[in-house]
Here is the input.
Amino acid sequence: MKDLRRLAHYFRPHRRYLILAALLVLVETAFELFIPVLMATLIDEGVANGDVPLMLHQGVLMGLFALISLVTGFLQARYAARASYGFGADLRRAQYEAVQKLAFSNLDHFETSSLVTRMTTDVTVLQNAFNTGFRAVFRSPVMLLMGLGLSFYMSPPLAVIFFLCVPVLAVILWAIVRKVAPSYRVLQKAVDRMNNVVQEHLTAMRAVKAFVREDYAESRFKTVNSGLMEASRYTFKTAVLNTPAFQMTMYGATVLLLWFGGRMILAGTLEVGQLTGFLSYVMQVMNSLMLVSNVFLLLTRSLASCHRILEVLDEVPAIDNPANAVTEVADGSIDFDDVSFRYSADANTDALSHVDLHIRSGQTVGILGGTGSAKTTLVQLIPRLYDVTGGALRVGGRDVRDYDLHALREAVGIVLQKNVLFSGTVRENLQWGNPDATDEELWDACRTACADEFLQRMPKGLDSDLGQGGVNVSGGQKQRLCIARALLKSPKILIFDDSTSAVDMATEAKIRTSLAQRRDVTKLIIAQRITSVQNADVIVILDDGKVHAVGNHDTLLATDPIYQEIYHSQMKGGDGHGQTHQ
Here is the structure.
């Protein structure tokens, strides 16, 4: 319940709808409860005495009260829906904003599919619980209290039956909730697993078809789908007992009322109209209690969803702006002073160990190393996608932790190892680098990245649609568009993380030549090919998270065995030990 109270403040912008809906529920219930009293009078006095005017009068009043109940019920549902869907929208927005503020280390705690479920299914569960339960929560207590009061007014002996039924219903509800509550958490995790498989296979549909793995994909989906089905069955096989249990109690109460009421009618201590009205109260009160029990079940599921949502909202960003943050990056110089880094505090080893590097503004730096040598990790520290765990990293002469995050990341353009394009046109994707870029600036960036070559052949040029994830262009074309997008930021530091691997060597040479003319920008190039970095001012060799060697192409070729091995294997077909075949 504490979790629900914490989320209650998201209703504040919609409280006027809540107040109106609550008042309308009270009005609806009050008019509905007076109908059995009118009906009892109609039967006992109007029908019994043949008093037609009285019957008409009572009938008109009953019809009027029913109409008022109908109108107020409709308005209540309308205002409750506005409040609940507004609450859901605000909660989704709060989660999305929270995710945008998280660092990579925070996001490592959540699977993408789980975040999607938390922003959709879990919010929908809360939203529906409120929308369904609002009327019952306000209506049932009023119905119960007024129903008990009016039933005592009509026949105190029969009213005792209510007090026998309520404890029975309470015990049934407690037993069901206790059994079902843990199952809802298992159910939501099963939804996460299914979403994860669906997302993976739909995103990688081309790979699935290329490797003819449709059967495997179907088998994997069948497994998680069956898991969700079993979790749902296990959960709801107990939850569905709620309705028949309440109906059994309600019909049992009806039988008891008819038995004792009939005997009282025969004894002359109760009128037929009073018993009819009393039975109406039984049905109304019991139905209200059944609605309350359903609300409790919804609430039980909501608590599981609430906890999952709060896990996202409570996640404290590992990286945040410092007080009195520096808002201007002076230049593109980069200094690693004894930098170490590990992805989590409980990791056994550092991903980077005691890195010392000093890069002048405007230099071109190549970074080479085997798989797992932490090349990508090294450059991710520069825009503070992760924070160093030891030593200090300075950009423009200041520790990166002194900068305003927005200012630092605006000064660093990065082309990720995995190319990311979004649904929309080429123009819309490029404008991620600069929303105000003119057509001339867009084409200039495209020429530098050699993207103009294929864009000019596309029917709509910059306004060509890329499709979801850029499916309408090849891997090399994606890379060139991503490079153009990074250039549009006009950054002081440009990082290329193996970003020309899908580009042919001739086009890559053109891109290198164009980039070399931008002497005011520090360029860091992670590559697998020697040709991508051999003309760099400095080449850094990483090995197992440590700086193995630093120098230019000629120096490293003459002195470093790792560089020699890479060079000879790529350029001269070496034997794997840095020796060329004679």
Notes: Residues 325-411+492-582 form a domain with the Rossmann fold fold (CATH 3.40.50.300). The longest helix spans residues 52-101.
